[in-house]
Structure formats: C-alpha cells, structure tokens
Design goal:
The protein is built from 4 helices and 5 strands; from the N terminus they run βαβαβαββα. It is of the alpha/beta class and about 130 residues long. It has a single domain, classed as Response regulator (Rossmann fold, 3-Layer(aba) Sandwich). A 5-stranded parallel sheet has the order 2-1-3-4-5, with helices on both faces.
C-alpha cells in the first residue's frame, strides 16, 4: 500500500501531520533531513505523494523535489515553505504549494484527494 513521504525537520509539525493523515487512513514514511528523504525517493517504497519542507537542516527541499522528478516523476509533490515561492519542478512534474503556516487538516484533506484520484480512497474519519 503506498505511503506519503513526509520530509519535515520540525518534530511537532511532523507528528501532528502524521496523526492527521493517519486519521484519514494514510500511512507516512517520516524523514527529518534531505539525505534521509533522498534514500526513500531513490528506493523502492511505493509512494502516494511527497510532502517536502523547503528549509531542511542539511539541504534545500528543492533538491528533494528535483530528485523526485528524476526517480518518481509520477508521484505528486507538495512543497511547504514559509517563504512561499512558485510550484517549480521538472517539466511535467506535479508540484503543489502549501505556504506555512498551513492548516494541517486542509493539507491532510488535500492528500486524501490525491489518494482518491490515484484510486486509493482514504479511510473515513472515525
């Protein structure tokens, strides 16, 4: 079953988002650094989406987005940053922008919509 790769260095943000996605039946692979994320992106874990914080401690999240374009071009990316910025990626790459601070519930519902579009409905809240 595909999971969401969540790349976020702030523990509390990561924990709250994992809980919100879990409430919708969506599993997460959590990473707190770009290098950990690159290992997942280049691996064989089935991914439904990739949520990337741009301000990571070891590299820009933009590098993770570019690696996703090379290794997982079919996987939608959600770019999260307090600075905003355009939804840039490789040609044909699906990149969405959520500006911090974002609503965790809104982001979770957005990911659930991606899951539904991909043919994997999220579990009803409960």
């Amino acid at each position: 079953m595909p999971s969401v790769l969540l790349v976020e260095d702030e523990f509390l943000i990561r924990a709250v988002l994992v809980d919100a996605l879990g409430d919708l039946g969506i599993d997460c692979v959590e990473t707190s650094t770009g290098s950990e994320a690159l290992a997942v992106v280049t691996g064989d874990e089935p991914l439904l989406a990739i949520i990337v914080d741009i301000g990571l401690p070891d590299m820009s999240g933009e590098e993770v987005i570019l690696a996703a374009a090379r290794h997982r071009p079919e996987v939608p990316v959600i770019r999260c940053s307090g600075a905003g910025g355009p939804a840039t990626g490789a040609p044909g790459q699906e990149v969405h922008v959520f500006r911090k601070p974002y609503s965790v519930d809104e982001l979770a519902r957005f990911v659930a919509g991606l899951a539904s579009r991909a043919g994997r409905p999220a579990a009803p809240p409960g």
